[in-house]
User: What shape does this take?
Amino acid sequence: MTHNPALKIAVIGGGIFGISTAVHLARLGIETTIVNDGPVANGASSRSLAWLNSARKRSATYHRLRMQGLDRYRTLAAGNDCGAWLRFDGGLTWDADNASNQIPEIFRHEQAIGYETRLLAPGDIAAVTPGVDAKAVSRQGAIFNADEGWVDLPSLIGLLLKEFRERGGRLITDAGRADVTLANGRVTGVKTASGQVVEADAVVVATGAGVPAMAAKVGKRIGDGTTRALLVLTKPLQHPLRAVLNTPRVAIRPTPNGAFALDSAWSEDEVIVGDDGMYEAKPSTIAGLLDEASKVLEGNPTLALASYHTGPKPIPSDGEPVIGQLTGIPGYHVVFSHSGATLGLVAGELLAGEIVSGTPNSLLEPFRPGRFES
Assistant: This one.
């Protein structure tokens, strides 16, 4: 790939999208600076279930991009010692036993698109993947997707950040809120809350739920469906579960230290957002989530709280990623998606490549921010 060796790029955001884009820029020999409001991985990446998948239904273009995302993780695993925090032990999902149950339909859909899938009766699950209480599974059965997995995003970010620094990348943390600076309609760099200026030929805004508001400052609309997140981490315990579980009342994945990470839609709905913008989870919500997790785990173990993380969950209004340059503002690029874990590596790679080469990548065409302007 040919490019201008004097190019300077700034990335605002120290989560998986920001760090991934920055390290891919550094691999291309670009002078790159990351600017973050606090320590790295202090936002959505710290409260993501980080399930690696392309399960259930979505657009064909989104499915294709997610499958590329899974492929990048397998490449990473082949070249690095990351077995403790990057696992492909499958995913198991079932729906409630009512009219909303879509398991047979989803199974047929996944078969049709070539996504590795098995429909299991409750009594057959133990022979395929351990650690599940079969009594909790609805009579319609569960889908097992063997190619799915999970990643501990702070561990991944640490690995990428180490490479970024080794390649000469610059990291500015605890910078407060940063803004993109413009002159004559194009990007000139970044200015931090303290007044520090980072000159750049292009800027990537990867501030999670903050992306739509930052785009609005320059008159651009990005549809925003951001909601609340709650990730509960248990204390470590001895348990055979290896797969990611997605059940009607709780989602569960293992963690590197032998604990479990938990989330659900109902518990997120109970998160309180105060007048000061701070997020808080009620003790009853956390206790309820721990109880729901125990019900679906083999042996119904008593789960103890280690910590929990709350905050905004970045979601575009149409559910699909937003990646690329803002229309009409040269050098102003954004990345905004609910699928931070699955797309983390591939989005950073593709965005870095097209910024440096000046050639739009066809895989990203359906996800441009300009789609919200019509």
